[in-house]
Amino acid sequence: MQDSQQPMQPATAAGTTGSSSMLPGRGGAILALGIIGIVFCFITGIIAWVMGKNDLREMDSGLRDRMDYSLTKAGMICGMVSVAVWALGLLWMVFVLMLTGTLGMLGC
After folding, report:
1. 0.85 cut: is pTM over it?
2. Which of 17, 29, 70, 100 has its CA 20 to 30 A from that of 52?
3. How far is residue 10's CA from residue 98's CA, in Å, rounded to a whole number?
């Protein structure tokens, strides 16, 4: 009779096996914040950008689960895009206000 032994892995709180020292991924939340940043408010885009950058760094160093890597990266990119779009909109608004003020002073 052959005795096959498999190495035991420590059980987590949910009863499954795995490493309890790894932080869970937050890719879905980061992606949602990035999309909200594009559509509504750039502040959530900044939050998505910072959270995504930190989470990707933690994933690369092995501290966070890599399962949500692509969602995290997409959310970070959406956050970057939202900040860029809102910044360009703000610059455009300043340009238009300066142009209308100048034309008003010239009597046009």
Report:
1. no
2. 17
3. 65
